[in-house]
Each structure stands twice: as C-alpha cells, then as structure tokens.
Amino acid sequence: MGGEALLFLFAAILSALLLFIMVYFIIMFSDLECDYINPIDLCSKLNQFVLPNYIAHTVLTVLFLLTGKWLSFLFNLPLVIYNVKRYMDNKHMYDATEIFRTLSYDKKESFIKLIFFFISFFLCKLIFY
Amino acid sequence: MQSEKKNPSNQYCCSTLNAVPQNNALLQKSKIPFGLVFAPYKNIGPDEPEVPVVSPEVIVRCKICRAYINPFVTFVDQGTRWKCNICHVVNDLPAFYSWDSKTRQAVDRNTIPELNSSVIEFVATQEYTRGPPQPVVIMFVMDVSFQSIQSGMVATAARTILSTLDSIPNYDNRTKIGFITYDSTLHFYNLNSNLNEPQMLVVSDLEDIFIPAPDDLLVNLSESRSVIESFLNKLGNMHKSTQNVNSALPAALTAANKIIGQIGGKIAIFQSNIPNCGKNALKKREDPSLYNTSKESTLLQPADNWYKEFALDCSRKQICIDTFIFSGQYTDIATLSTLPRFTGGSIYFYPGFDASRAEDANKFSSELSRFLSKKIGLEAVLRIRSTRGVSVKACYGNFFLMASDLVQLPNVNPDNCYALEASIDKDLTSEPYICFQGAILHTSNNGERRIRVFTNIIPVTNNLTEVFANADPRAIAAFTAKKAVERTITDKLEDARNLIINTCIDIMGAYKQAFTSSGQASQLLIIENLALLPVLTQALLKNIAFRRGNIPSDIRSFALSVLYGSPIENALSYIYSKLYAIHILDANTGLPIPNTSQVYMPPRINLSMQRMTQDGIYLLDNSQHIIIWLSRGSNPELVNALFQKPYEAIASGKTTLPTPNNDYATRINNIIEFIRKDRLISYNNSPYVYIVKEDDNTRGWFISHMVEDKLDSELSYPQFLSHLREQVILYKLRDFPSIHHKYSNNYQRRY
Ligand SMILES: [Zn+2]
C-alpha cells in the first residue's frame, strides 16, 4: 500500500511540475504577442523544456503500466501517443521562423495540456489521500 | 479634397481588394483572400519619379499608435490638429505645417511632400539613431574547388568585381570589403593597406575555426585599394591547378560571420558545388523516385537545420546573405535558399555555368556588377500598421518576422517584394476607408538614417458586388503564389496546388452563389474584372514551381524562390509569360518612344500554340529568359535580316544576336535591349536570348510556357474552364466541409 501511495505522490508532484511548465509556456506566448520577447529567445527558452516534458510524462505513464494502474495508464496514453506523433513528424520543437504562423495552435496545445495536468494532479491527490 | 491624393503606384503596393468589406462576415462571403503585396523599396526605373526625401524639423507621428503623418489624415479644429487614420486619435499639428516663420507666410499644405506623396522618405532625427550608422560591408565567400575554376566562375567574378570597385557605394570612404575562398580548406587574404601584395593564409582545421589576422581580413576599400586590385588580378589564376572537388561552405560562412559579425553587412556566396565537406555538409539527396509523390516536398525543404539557424544568427547581427549558384548538378538549393530567405537576400542561379560561352559570362557579369553597385538600405526594420479593426495575420517574404507586424531586414533589397495577409476583426461601419502604413527605418547608402513610409488607403463597402467589382486578379495571383510557396515548404506540394485551385473555385463559387438564380447555372460566371483569375490560376498550377511532372528539385526550389521574392510585375510574367509576334511589326514597333527610355512593344498574345502561325517568329519573355521561337515556315528574309544566316544554319540555344544594319534587326534588338535593361533595373536579372526552332528538341521547353494548351497531365484552358464550371455548380454543396474535401480529392484524381 505504501508503494502505491508513493507512486501517486510522485505522480502528483510530476503533474504539478508539468503544470507549471505549461503555465510558463502560456506566459511566454503572451509575452511574444505583446512584443516583450523576440521569437529566437522564446524558442530557445521553450525548446529546452520540450523533451524533458515529454520524457517525464512518458516515464510516468510507463510506471502506471508497470504497476498495473490501468485507469491511470489509459488516462495518460492519448497524450503519449500525441507527443510521439509530434516527435515523429519533427514538429515538437518551436521554430522561430514559423512561430507566428503556429502560435494559435501552440497556445491551444499548451492550454489543453495545462488542463490535462491540472486534472491529473487533482486525481493523483485524491487517490493519495 | 482627398480624391486627388493618390495611393502608391501598383508596383509599390497593391491590394487584392480595392474595396474592403465592412465586416468579416462579408469578407468570408466573398471568399477573396485579403492580402497586400508590397515593395516599398523597389528599384526605380529611369522614367519613374524618385521618392521625395524630406527632413522636417520634427517627424510628426501619432502620439498613440506612432503612425506617421500622411496624405490621407484629416485636419480638424480649423486645421490646427490632425486625426490619425490608423487609431483615430486627434493629435496636435506643429506650427511649421501652418506658418512658415522664415517667409512669414501661411504654408500651402498642397506643397508639403509628406502631406501629398503616399511614398516618402524622412531623414531621421537623432532619436532614431543608435551609434554610428553601419557602413557598406561586403564579404565575398567564394568556392574555389575544381568546378569553380574549371567553369571560369572565379575568373569572371574576380574580373567583374575589379571593374565594379568604383561603383560600389562608398560614401565618405567608409566601405569595407574582404574575401574568403574555400575548397576543403579555408583561405583568408590579408589585404592590409601597408602590404604591397596580398597574403594568403590557409586554415585547414574546419572544426574549430581560427581566424588569422582578424583585423586585416576586412579592409577599407579606399585605403587598401591597390592591394585589393592586386588580389583580384591574381584571384583568377590563383587556384588554377586545383584538383580539389570539396567545398566547405558552412565553415567559410562561420568564418565570415565571425569577421563581420561586429558591424554587420553582406555575405555574398559564390557556390559551384554542393557543400560536401566539413561540419553541416549536405548530401546528394535528390531522388527522382519521390517525384509526384507526397514525399516530394521533403526534397523542397531544408535538409539541415543549421542553415536556418545560421541565417537567423546573421539576421540578428544585421548580416544579409546573397547566394550565387553555378552548378550543373544537384546543389541542394532547397537548403541553400534558406540563407537569403531569412536575411533579406536574393538567390541567383546559373545552371551549368560555363564562362567560355560569352552569354553565360555576360549574364553573370552584368548581374554581379549591378548587384554590387545598386542602392540598398542597411540594418533595417519594417513596421506595418493598419487601421484599428484590421490586423496583419501573416507576412510573406525574404525576412525574419520579429513580431506579428515587425519585420527584420539586415538589408532592404530593392529586388524583393513582400506580402501580408490581413483579417478584419471588428465591424468597420464607421470607417469610410481603411489604411495600411509601412515604415522602413534603415541606413541609406550615404550613411543617413532614413524612414521610408508608404501609406495605402482602401475604401470600405457594405456591398458584396462592390467587393467583387474592385478585386484585383493580378494581386490575388501574386499573393496566392507567395502563400502557396510557403505552403510547399511547410506542408506539401499538393497542399499548395489545392490552395491555388481552391482560391479560384471559392471566389467564383461565392460570386455565383451570391448573384445568380439557380436557373442559369450552366454558364461560367465571373465578374468582368476577375476574368483573368482562372487563366492566372491555371498558369500558376502549370508553373514549374507547382506543376506535376519529373522536375529536378533544384529547378523547383529556384522557381519557388523566384515566385516568393520577385516584384509583382516580374512574378506575373513568371506566372503568365509575355508572348509577342515579331514577324509582323506595326509602323513604330521596336522604335524608341520619344522622351522616355522605352520602346514601342508589339501587342501581347495569349499563351496558346493556336494563336501562333506556321510562318511566325515569336518572342517570349518569362521574366527569367527571352526565348525566340522560329517556325519552320518563317519568312527567310526576316530570318536572314535578324540572324544573318538561313534557318537551317541557326543553332538552338543561348545566342548573342548579331546587330546588322537593317531596320528589322534594329527594331528587334531594341525590343530585346529594352527588356534586358528594364529587367536588370527592376529585378537584377539580365536574361539570355534562347533560340528555339520548331523542329528542334528544345521545343518542349518553349511549349511548356503555353499554359492555355494541354500539357502532359495538365488540362488545356477550355478543359480547365469546364472543370471550374463543374466545381462551381457543385459549390453550394461545399458549405459542408466534408464535401468540400471530397470534391477537392476528386479534383486531384482528375487533374
Ligand atoms: Zn494613431
């Protein structure tokens, strides 16, 4: 039982971390729109978080799979598939020359991920208590 | 009062809509893309007025949106204040626009250039300058591998640069130049003015590039003139015996960036070979089995991200990259063209260059010489403002977009043209017209900071008929071409083709839906002023950039660059070539028009072989080349007058026409000379003359320009029209997105 609690504690902390990263992304995008940051700096700042973000989320999902937490696993699976697809299409990194064209999509994507990690955080907390 | 103030001429700026719908719903109903194609810094021809340069005491700008005062603002409060036409705020007007304190007289505002001319250049006051203005800096980066030497490229370039030294803008003797040559090693040249002879310094470690004598590699043109001359005299023979076939372009670029990075400037690349050596080398990835498949677009996208990142780094350091490519073999233009694309440069392409052919040498030499001597703007930014309620959605052109309405241009290249896509976010009912204003802050060749401002107004309407009746098919075609190029590079070639055809079908369908009763559906209806839209659409689909067929990716990539960057007139003749019959001339065709630098041109004919006769001689101008078509039955007298030999003895291919002393040849040569001069000024291109004989195997190339005829799998114009007609009848169904998609797939299969 202790192991399971630990797993969900870990999941909650990780979700919170990913949640904060998404908040950071959204703030940066709105900074770009207000001209507070230029596209090159924006992309180099965001890009360093992209892969850690993917990896953290994938590790978490694999942990759920290995421990047989099927519901949690299925909850996270669609996002893993989406991330893998973005990675395979080589569209996971932000490109300074295209950022203004993709901005509305990028914003939406980050916002949906934010909501996802938010729910994920609360679900984990719920189970943990 | 305002009607006499004119918008900038079409070549500076033209809008797809010359009557703007009052709200977004009406715009969506018309289906016409709302775009502006503009070239504010365009080359100015000999018969055109110069842009007025003014230096008022204060440059008057709106206190809220920072727009510049312009001919279309309104004066309020008895003319003591002006109302901004971008944000509608009322601003104070400085006294010097009302009262001239020197002459002690009231000012006639009709004589003030900035209140009357919609394109204007302000000399910037102190507040616009940051440190000393950038001098003209040119770093020549030249491939000296076996192919470059063998083709005579290096010798021709050296000779041309030497003879152009006096014409390079060199105000106040501040201009600096330098040279790097490279094969599998880098060669630097110490051109210190104290030396009698240039010194060559070879660096063979390409991993961690060491710059020897960093202060003497980029030198003052005037001070080091004699060393530079001595260097250029030698350069042609310097690497004569080389057998090296390697070309370390990325390393040479890195070195050039290190040398001029502090001041910024221009890097001119002369490349004969695929960059095949050192870090970030490119591979021969051409794969004909991908032609006509959905994977073809991968060949048109850059292979290595380093080139893009390097270009962005250059853009940040105010460095512009221009690329001259000479190879007859695959050079990966898709990757190399990213260098000029993000730095405001241009790309020049000489496939199979051979300097021993006079035509090749002359073309390259005149383009390089004009490239070095033409006027450019340095370290520039372009800001676009539009009336509140209209916003800039996307920008297209060779630059780096710093913010949604702010463009960074290390050089404002007068050969380049840009486009923006606008959207209507709010109801414009209270506006009689909307306004776009572009301002380029730049350093002029004389070291002055200047602001080139253009202001374009478009009336607003709530009437859909007026929207259609004032749409400009030429602007729509040029705009759609740029957007389709972008689509090809970011998505797929097929997506670009669909964009082109759907733009046309949507507009025609929307027109039909809005204005015809269902009973008269069989006739293809399009409003008269848009009559050119179908033919331009078809021509665009058949352009080498977008058409189906086995087209080498270098050729396609170059065509994409041409469509993306060239000024509107050139882009249009690249899409729909100009064809003239030159075997029957009017009384004054080919003679100079008095008091101008122009000649009387023959009438244009439609691009169809059916419009051509068996005995005709035709001249085709596709903006890149001049092609003369000789029919088998051409009048022997005319052929002899023009070529000084009979039809049978004439060889197809690049030619220099003789200049015999007869009326016919003089007129034809006048026409060709005029096209060449005009092209060199407007687009820095000096077209070859190609002869194509009717019974020769090069005829296919000429025939591929006949866009109204059937070509391979592509439809003829009548077939295309009937296809459009079908699509437009089905248009009503296409309000449902899924059906829309189905029909476009259906179209793909058939087309
Ligand atoms: Zn304003």
Task: Report the total helices of chain A.
Answer: 4
Mean pLDDT of chain B: 91
> What is the count of helical runs of chain B?
21
* Sheet/helix structural class of chain B: alpha+beta
Q: Would you tell me which CATH topology of the largest domain in chain B applies?
A: Rossmann fold
Bound molecules: zinc ion
Helical content of chain B (DSSP H or I, runs of 4+): 25-40%
The major β-sheet of chain B equals: 8 strands, mixed
How many structurally independent domains of chain B? Answer: 4
What would you note in describing this structure?
The complex is a heterodimer of chains A (129) and B (751). Chain A is mainly α. Chain A is built from four helices and no strands. Chain A has one domain. Chain B is α+β, with helices and mostly antiparallel strands and 751 residues long. Chain B folds into four domains: 13-43 and 53-116 and 377-471, Immunoglobulin-like, CATH 2.60.40.1670; 137-373, Rossmann fold (3-Layer(aba) Sandwich); 479-553 and 710-750, Four Helix Bundle (Hemerythrin (Met), subunit A) (Up-down Bundle), CATH 1.20.120.730; 577-703, 3-Layer(aba) Sandwich (Severin). Helix content of chain B is 31%, strand content 21%. Chain B contains 21 helices and 31 strands. In chain B, the strands form six sheets. In chain B, strands 2, 4, 10, 19, 21, 22, 24 and 25 form an eight-stranded mixed beta sheet that branches. In chain B, strands 11, 12, 13, 14, 15, 16, 17 and 18 form an eight-stranded mixed beta sheet that branches. Chain B is globular and about 75 Å long. The interface between A and B is medium-sized, with 12 and 13 residues. Chain A: Belongs to the cornichon family. Chain A: It is found in: Membrane. Chain A: Keywords: Membrane, Transmembrane, Transmembrane helix.
